């Protein structure tokens, strides 16, 4: 028979390639209008390598089977009150950050990849993008489903959709992804497929999954394992996309370099929230932020990937030294910000337990005891006297990354940095050399940012007082210190109820 | 009688996610929980560099409007899992029918007239499916609200699957890879397929996803699948297509499934409390533009069936009836 005479590779090619054609009833640029304005030159789309030879049919089969297993585990978890088996209810605050901050990005990635699938003229990369669009929809939905049973019992999940669009710290991940989807297709691929999925995935996405696994969160962990094979396709797409651009034309190299510079810093700033989560919100910790940064970024990317990219004329990201210099204090600075503004955050914070402070001292011998332990010890004392420390007033946000301006000069844990740029007669503030460089490269883009604190002052967020803003967020006791939370009360009561059965 | 397991029940604090619960007032099923209002709605940070006049998600990407974009729910209740499950079942059924046909030698002993029809009429439709998959990907990107775009991304993936199902048949037939080249040439140059290629290219060049959806899902699909696949399969049963015809049946079944969300969305647009009259006028105008072109597509393609006993009128009658029954859904609900 005809098919069996062809090799697998040939059959696969026949299934995926050669379906596209050059239009003649419409000018090609009317059908493919978006892939030229960024200046990337592609000479032959057929040079694209497809390392994953999947067809639509095999995709359906494989994904349906994975989800069959996932939903079976989820149903068992719900029936057996699995939420009581996590390490401690404090863990859920990491999960809240994930559902509020990351799940909507999965969804946005889905829409972004639909656009890539439609508008890249090459059939092979378009198919990889289409499959990824499907995968990202899967991730958004399975995360909503996996975390839904927690939502029925705990705060901080119920209005995540609204929070993602409105709440101040969530504008950090939201603006990151808005930035990517509002860019051209090649920049989107560099930002998301390369920056997010490849370069920093082990510092952005994977820590939540490892946290779930260490803290007995069965449903999120099951999702994490079940997404692994999707993610390896996505990582491959990211690396292939960058190499493809670099190989197609030398003129692409400086453009791609600038994007790598920009998106490294942009994604790295989003990891600041992950750093705080890893070091402070996990009752059972799997590694420190600093250890993760050294292993997954310095060792695997700086020593592994970038020497390879050198061959194409690509250098390590422009502001990488600043990132490295921050690893000893980043998580502490950011958690302290979150701790100080928790009265308006849709999760809880708390002063770490004494043995947790000791763990931090041990992991950060040069900085923790000297700069940060005293803050937390003072906060604990104040709380014992009935004065839970909160920062009065609203913070200035960085115009680019939108994190409150709490960052310091590289290598100097307490000297604060505020950078001013003037554009069209107005002053804009950024937190770091990286963010300032990004701002000044495209000021017309970043002045558009919907900065939550500015919007509160403008009266666009329900009113000017904290209770009004919280009402506009839809707060139902989701904010404040963990010690005063419904979550804690319920956790204790439900475990007493269970223990009485024994 | 059923036996009774005692369970340790802790009463939940709330029934479900707030935005779904306020809308439906009862615990949501997984389709609802994974689909309703998942899309970001407000406070977008930057205008797209490639279209500064719009927001990242913007109801203004189409002239068609809904007062509430979630008044449309997919009647098939497909979310990612149930979609993949439904599709892999259909694909497995097709694969086993084909395996049976192969073992029976049905591809080698195929009536040469049908060989010609499959390669020359259906073969080029691989490219039609590819074009439709691009159009639906565009609808998935630019339509408003998760429930509509979700149905569109599945449709996009389906069309690519359809292209691959046709590819498989061409590869199994005598000629193998040469059939693909022959079909491609017919798509690009053969006179019969030019109205269809022109139609697809013209729809690809549109920026209004609502008009794209109308031109493909309401008009073109309702003409192409009944007149070519359904009618073709019927002719095959009478004239020696045999088991090879299961692929045509598969595509017609796919169309029936696709029609389910198409007709629901059409009803939703036409009966919207705030925009119904406006939408009907917009739809009417699109239908007037695209319907004659769809008919021209079929008039050019249907003569391929002459050799196997078909007529242009026979195919058109089947399409006409399908199309009329679909657009009848636009009539205001009584
Ligand atoms: Fe994902
Ligand atoms: Fe910044």
Describe this structure in words.
- The complex is a heterodimer of chains A (502) and B (334).
- Chain A has 502 residues and is mainly α.
- Chain A is built from 24 helices and two strands.
- In chain A, strands 1-2 form a two-stranded antiparallel sheet.
- In chain A, strand 1 and strand 2 (426-430) form a beta hairpin.
- In chain A, helix 10 crosses helix 13 and helix 12 runs antiparallel to helix 13.
- The longest helix of chain A has 31 residues, at 218-248.
- The radius of gyration of chain A is 24 Å and the shape is globular.
- Chain B has one domain: Ribonucleotide Reductase, subunit A (Orthogonal Bundle).
- In chain B, helix 5 (125-142) packs antiparallel against helix 9, helix 9 runs parallel beside helix 11 (276-301) and helix 9 (209-238) packs across helix 12.
- Chain B has helices spanning 18-24, 30-35, 80-103, 112-122, 125-142, 146-172, 177-188, 194-204, 209-238, 246-270, 276-301, 312-327.
- Chain B is mainly α and 334 residues long.
- Chain B starts with 17 loop residues before the first helix and ends in a 7-residue tail after the last helix.
- The chains are: A mainly alpha (502), B mainly alpha (334).
- Chains A and B meet through helix 1, helix 2, helix 4, helix 6 and helix 7 of A and helix 2, helix 3, helix 5, helix 6 and helix 7 of B.
- Residues 106, 109, 136, 139 of chain A line the site of one fe (ii) ion (FE2).
